[in-house]
Amino acid sequence: MTSAIPTVDTAGVTALLERGRTLATPVLRAAVNRLAPPMDTVAAYHFGWIDAEGRPAHGDQGKAVRPALALLSAEAAGAAAEIGIPGAVAVELVHNFSLLHDDLMDGDEQRRHRDTVWKLYGPAQAILVGDALFALANEVLLELGTVEAGRATRRLTTATRKLIDGQAQDISYEHRERVTVAECLEMEGNKTGALLACAVSIGAVLGGADDRTADILEAYGYHLGLAFQAVDDLLGIWGDPEATGKQTWSDLRQRKKSLPVVAALAAGGPASERLAELLAADAGLTDAQLADFDEEEFASRAALIEEAGGREWTSQEALRQHATAVEALGRVDMPEEVRAQLVALADFVVVRKR
Predict the structure, then answer these.
(1) What is the pLDDT of residues 124-158, one digit of tens each?
(2) Rounded distance, CA 170 to CA 164, Å?
(3) Quick one: signal sequence residues (predicted)?
(4) Terminal C-alpha separation, the chain
(5) Which domains does the chain have, with CATH numbers?
(6) Whose CB has fewer CB within 10 Å in the chain, the N or C terminal residue?
């Protein structure tokens, strides 16, 4: 059964994302300014606040979905949005810690239409600054000195450990010929779902919510994260480089076992079998030989994935996870306006193009 693509309240979602960015950024900048040189400069470049020459910049600073969720989380618990700011900043610091390390591990040279940190400043700086951002995330929460801050930090550290588990799984899957759909969903639940789940519970915890409320909000965030990653997987193969800031066929170049690939391999049929043969043959090639693949080769593989049904299955999985996320919201008492805003953000996640 095909699920309907939701209609997005673009203006409302834009306002929510901008509110999250506006309230969180000054506190985020203050945290980054604590870093010793040159890490403060490297981090400022990564966040898009300066260019490679150190001049102020106003480039693409990301979607800011997680800060928006953290502020709404506080409001879902009946607190002011501002109560969620330390949580928003902490989650954003952890998210960017993961991006710095992932870019290095994946060999990605571009993020948001600019050179990645490891490409510009070297691998050592990418590792150091990533580590520093993770430490700052815990500092920002624990310096609040409240019981709620301790509860929030426990949720953040658990989510971070799951995120790292997911990255480890992702890397290991690149070297396996076959990965099941269940394994792929588990990996993506760790790598993306865990931190989004934390984002949408951490503000509520800081606002005094009980564990039941926080756990249900986490369920919304976890399934939203799976929807988010399913869309990311589609964009990783068929996304417009002008919108995504990454190379064409970027996930295919990295041999990622993303959902469209795994679903296509599990589907059976001629296209699925041909794709499996090509991927099995890759295992016998050197990195230099793999680097010689041209655009036509990747386009052909993308066509096989689509013919086998991997693209359509992943699109439907994004909508299934979206529906599960929205359903979870019905189990929490919260202001109806906040509920509507959380639904609108979920809608945005599954129709975005970047």
Answers:
(1) 999 999 999 999 999 999 999 999 999 999 999 99
(2) 10
(3) none
(4) 26
(5) 10-351 (1.10.600.10)
(6) N
Whose CA is closest to 228, among 325, 302, 124? 325
Place of tokens 């971070």: 160
Number of CB atoms found within 10 A of residue 92's CB:
28
Q: Which amino acid is at 121?
A: Y
Residue whose C-alpha is closest to residue 60's, from 248, 198, 246: 246
Q: Residue 38, preceding bond cis, omega within 30 degrees?
A: yes
Match 């919108």 to its residue by tokens.
Answer: 243
pTM passes above 0.90: yes
In tens, the pLDDT along 65-84 reads 999 999 999 999 999 999 99
State the Cα–Cα distance between residues 181 and 128, nearest whole angstrom.
34
DSSP for residue 75: H
Report pLDDT digits (tens) over 189-222: 999 999 999 999 999 999 999 999 999 999 999 9
Question: Between the CA of residue 312 and those of 105, 143, 308, what are the distances in Å?
Answer: 29, 47, 9
Q: Which amino acid is at 23?
A: L
Tokens 């970027």 sit on residue: 250
Of the listed ranges 24-28, 93-97, 259-263, 275-279, the least confidently predicted one is: 275-279
Position 73, amino acid: S
Are 76 and 12 a contacting pair, CB within 8 Å?
A: no
